[in-house]
Amino acid sequence: MTVSVGVLSVVIGGWMMGRLPQQLLPAADRNQFAVEIYLPTGTDVDVTAAVADSMEHILRQDPRVVSVASFKGCASPRFQTAYAPQIPGTNYAQFIVNTTGVEATVELLDEYAPKYTDYFPNARVRFKQLSYSDAVYPIEVRLSGEDLDVLKHDAKVIEERLHGMDGLVLVQTDFNEPLPAIAVNLKEDEATRLGVTNLGLESTLAMRYGNGLQIANVWEGDYGIPVTLKSTNADHAQPADLNDELVPVAAGLADVPLRQVADVVPAWKEGQIVRRNGVYTASVQADIARGENAMAMNVRVQNVVNGMQLSPGVRVSYGGEQEANDDKMPMIMNGLALAAAIIFFILLAHFRKVSIAVLMFVSLLLCLFGTAVGILIQGVTFGVTCVLGIIALMGIIVRNGIIMIDYAEELRATERMTASDAIYHSAQRRMRPIFLTSAAASMGVIPMILGGSGLWMPMGTVICYGTLITMLFILTVLPCAYLLIFRGSSKKREK
Fold first, then answer.
1. Do 18 and 82 belong together in one domain?
2. Given its phi and psi angles, is residue 97 left (phi above 0), alpha (psi -120 to 50 degrees) or beta?
3. What would the pLDDT profile of 232-245 be if each residue is shown by its tens digit?
4. I want to staple 231 with a disulfide (CB 3.0 to 4.6 A). Which of 195, 208, 443, 467 is the partner?
């Protein structure tokens, strides 16, 4: 009966573990958060600055905000390992907001994110709580294929579908709006006569109208400021400006207007084209609402996308938190399996009996019920630190088991007791040390639980609850299982 209860606890514990909310890496406990502002591609930096100034003014009025560092048209330096700012542009602004504490950070995000995400016309305001995860967006559906127009169409269909899902905010594709451009088409005959090549012309125009040519570096304290040389019309060039642009000919011995060797015509270009491994890729990205679980939301999104009929030749994959989980979780589980294997061989080397080693190894499963109960009671999510807690818990279980089984084997060898008498006396004698060591281990992690850290609280929860609950199984189920295995050893051992 007792063994059946133990088996039932393992089954129930496994079932509960499979339904626990999962999050590989939690949010960082910091007194700061980031705000990112996006406007349509090509928006003048002055317009972006006006929106950013308004948002900054709102933040500074809150007494919970200590300071705001603003970046308009550029991005902040990396100040947190896992947080990578977006690619800067005239349509982009960023704040780093420092608050009075961790609780104030959570309160501000809960209050401001729903209110100001779509507050400004034509602007997306993203409130970003710093995390240990390096995923740029928690939700990302990637479509790959050879036809860019087909990818755009399917991405738009998925975007519209996800817009209607509860728990998702800021749903968008990574295709930017088409941008006005200028096409320069070389006149082959005239260019050949004057010795102008496509490569040489591209280099000249890129230097003058692109990033320019760095000619010096001016130092301001410890920071170097590059000095570049480029055309005065580089940031707002018109076709007429390029027509009159002088380009070198005849190996640089003379200059002629660009209109003499090329046709300059207005054109449109894609705002952004993404390739992954050389294949066109369109991504539908989204944030999750405050309080939603990223992994659970990823499952919902995948169910929606899998139920849609996409165009032939379009392949679907998933990024965001799902990709991070798929990349890291196998390594974590391999580490857990390696730890279990080492424990088994240690047990085998100590007892020199396969039956006892297997019994002790199987008893490790008794930690599932206590772990699941603790996580549910504390309301934490199952992540990487929970796995670390399980590894520590496995060591505690094995230690308690060794204390009991080793003494029973000693009694059978020295006192020539029957298996039932030996395990009874062992359980009776070792109950107090097992209880004291388990209680000490549980109480030792109480500060981790009370600290409320998103990173370490789950680990403390697993060790505390798992140790206390599993201790009861070790004192009851393990002796009965030992007796069940050695039920044939009812006689006393002979000298």
1. no
2. beta
3. 666 666 667 677 77
4. 208
